């Protein structure tokens, strides 16, 4: 559908290519053992997954900072499951989590297949709100860094998706006009509406069971990109 129009494909990273939930679970499994946390991982994760999305939304909206995000999401979850943890332990867990998270390299289904398919046809780039110190390490440890020409992150841009400034920075750095670019991401708010505000085409990887919408194409697994590119 966009084959003759698009020259550059922008991807979000977490929840879009990099299997955040699986890698996150493996990280918590390890650091709970290291810190003597005697709590069933499934109980913790059932609370953590939605809480993490909630706090990332606050961070995206500049209502909390990086350190508050890292501390508060853990504090809220431990309080919710009524597992007593001192602040010093929370801070240690938070540090260990960030340090070890990017060591894991599991990807969402069809990631490597679709990157292999797209690589000869398009230039590919990453636009991420993730922390600069870990995102490049995620790409390297997952073995997919060589697919991408540019990685634009929110710390580099000074703003977070969906702010148009980060998308404009991406267009400037890649020297592509918005009508020749397409954004693939899991967040309707950050990736899809943010990109469309600048006239960038979009493909929404709907992994969070968002309701149907008319803000560009919707897919449910990465292999469906072949229908459009």
Q: How would you portray this structure in words?
A:
The longest helix has 20 residues, at 41-60. 47% of the residues lie in helices and 12% in strands. α2 (41-60) packs antiparallel against α3. Strands 3-2-1-4-5-6 form a six-stranded parallel β-sheet, sandwiched between helices. It folds into two domains: 8-19 and 107-227, HAD superfamily/HAD-like (Rossmann fold, 3-Layer(aba) Sandwich), CATH 3.40.50; 20-101, Putative phosphatase, domain 2 (DNA polymerase, domain 1, Orthogonal Bundle), CATH 1.10.150. The model has no long low-confidence stretch (mean pLDDT 96). The chain contains nine helices and six strands, in the order βαααααβαβααβαββ. The chain starts with 7 loop residues before the first strand and ends in a 10-residue tail after the last strand. It is of the alpha/beta class and 229 residues long.
Summarize the structure.
This protein is an alpha/beta fold.
Helix fraction by DSSP (H/I, runs of at least 4) = 40-55%
Count of beta strands: 6
CATH class of the largest domain: Alpha Beta
| Poorly predicted segments | none
Q: CATH topology of the largest domain, anyone?
A: Rossmann fold
Overall geometry:
elongated
By CATH, the architecture of the largest domain is named 3-Layer(aba) Sandwich
Strand percentage: 5-15%
**Strand arrangement across the biggest beta sheet:** 3-2-1-4-5-6
How many structural domains can be distinguished in the coordinates? 2
Structural class: alpha/beta
What's the quaternary structure here? single chain
How far from one another are the termini?
6 Å
The ordered H/E elements are EHHHHHEHEHHEHEE
Number of helices: 9
Mean pLDDT across all residues, rounded?
Answer: 96
């Amino acid at each position: 559908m966009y084959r003759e129009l698009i020259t550059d494909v922008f991807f979000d990273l977490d929840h879009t290519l990099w299997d955040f939930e699986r890698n996150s679970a493996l990280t918590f499994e390890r650091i709970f053992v290291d810190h003597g946390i005697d709590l069933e991982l499934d109980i913790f994760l059932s609370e953590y997954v939605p809480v993490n999305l909630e706090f990332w939304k606050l961070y995206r909206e500049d209502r909390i900072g990086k350190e508050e995000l890292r501390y508060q999401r853990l504090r809220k979850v431990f309080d919710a499951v009524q597992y007593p943890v001192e602040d010093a332990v929370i801070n240690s867990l938070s540090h260990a989590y960030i340090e070890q998270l990017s060591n894991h390299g599991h990807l969402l289904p069809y990631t490597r297949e679709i990157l292999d398919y797209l690589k000869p046809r398009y230039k590919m780039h990453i636009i991420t709100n993730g922390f600069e110190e870990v995102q490049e390490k995620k790409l390297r440890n997952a073995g997919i860094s060589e697919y991408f020409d540019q990685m634009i992150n929110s710390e580099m841009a000074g703003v977070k998706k969906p702010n148009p400034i980060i998308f404009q920075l991406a267009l400037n750095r890649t020297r592509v006009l918005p009508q020749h670019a397409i954004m693939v991401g899991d967040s309707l708010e950050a990736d899809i509406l943010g990109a469309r505000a600048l006239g960038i085409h979009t493909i929404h990887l709907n992994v969070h069971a968002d309701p149907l919408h008319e803000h560009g194409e919707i897919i449910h697994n990465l292999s469906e990109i072949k229908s459009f590119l």
